[in-house]
């Protein structure tokens, strides 16, 4: 009898799994926190101690700094503060036009375009000078030289902005920017473990 009652009883529906918070963004990391810290320290040491020729040192420090900043600080309070500060500055500039037609421009689109232009500038700094025969003076762009035991300010400003805001540009430039940063991150990710055993 008990077995018959159990068979006739309606089967309770399974409890629905709690849905994730729509406002939360899950970040996938290529490196561990330790590897990020080691990579960032390596970039700082290379720039600060002027390791190697100037042309190679600046490029190497930048190529290590961008992935480290991207992995270590993307989505952090520093990232949010940087975007908010830049957006507020652009908004003030638009408001200063006194209600002109350009004041209706999208702040997010302008910020993304600026980051994309920064990426183009960095490409010019990364290109070898020999490429100037075909690309003109664009390939002769360089980060200004810094004295011994002093960080290259312009290099680190560019690295921080690209590391934090590479996901903001849209269009073809945005796709290329994100693709290059992601490729670079995957390329340098094994270095901390290979050099120092920091997996």
Can you tag this structure with a few keywords?
single chain, 199 residues, mainly alpha, 62% helix, globular, disordered N terminus
H/I helix tally? 9
Share of helical residues = 55-70%
What percentage of amino acids are in beta strands? under 5%
State the end-to-end distance. Answer: 62 Å
From the helix content, strand content and strand pairing, which structural class follows?
mainly alpha
- Reading the helices and strands in chain order gives HHHHHHHHH
Instruction: Return Rg in Å.
Output: 24 Å
* Oligomeric assembly: single chain
Question: What is the general shape?
Answer: globular
- Strand segment count: 0
In terms of per-residue confidence, which ranges show pLDDT below 50 for 5 or more consecutive residues?
1-25
Detailed description of the structure:
By secondary structure, this protein is an all-alpha fold. The chain has a domain at 31-77 and 113-196. Helices cover 62% and strands 0% of the residues. The chain has nine helices and no strands. The chain has helices spanning 2-8, 33-48, 54-73, 77-95, 107-126, 132-135, 153-165, 171-188, 191-196. The longest helix is centred in the first third of the chain and has 20 residues, at 54-73. The chain is globular and about 55 Å long. The termini are far apart. 23% of the residues are buried.
């Amino acid at each position: 009898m008990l077995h018959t009652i159990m068979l006739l009883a309606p089967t309770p529906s399974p409890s629905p799994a709690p849905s994730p918070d729509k406002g939360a963004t899950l970040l996938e990391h290529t490196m561990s926190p330790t590897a990020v810290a080691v990579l960032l320290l390596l970039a700082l040491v290379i720039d600060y101690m002027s390791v190697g020729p100037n042309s190679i040192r600046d490029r190497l420090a930048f190529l290590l700094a961008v992935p480290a900043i991207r992995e270590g600080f993307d989505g952090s309070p520093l990232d949010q503060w940087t975007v908010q500060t830049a957006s507020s500055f652009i908004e003030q500039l638009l408001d200063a036009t006194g209600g002109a037609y350009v004041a209706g421009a999208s702040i997010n689109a302008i910020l993304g375009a600026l980051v994309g232009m920064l990426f183009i500038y960095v490409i010019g700094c990364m290109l070898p000078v020999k490429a100037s025969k075909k690309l003109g003076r664009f390939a002769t762009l360089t980060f200004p030289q810094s004295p011994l035991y002093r960080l290259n300010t312009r290099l680190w400003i560019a690295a921080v902005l690209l590391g934090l805001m590479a996901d903001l540009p849209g269009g073809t430039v945005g796709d290329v920017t994100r693709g290059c940063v992601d490729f670079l991150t995957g390329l340098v990710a094994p270095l901390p473990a290979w050099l120092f055993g920091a997996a």
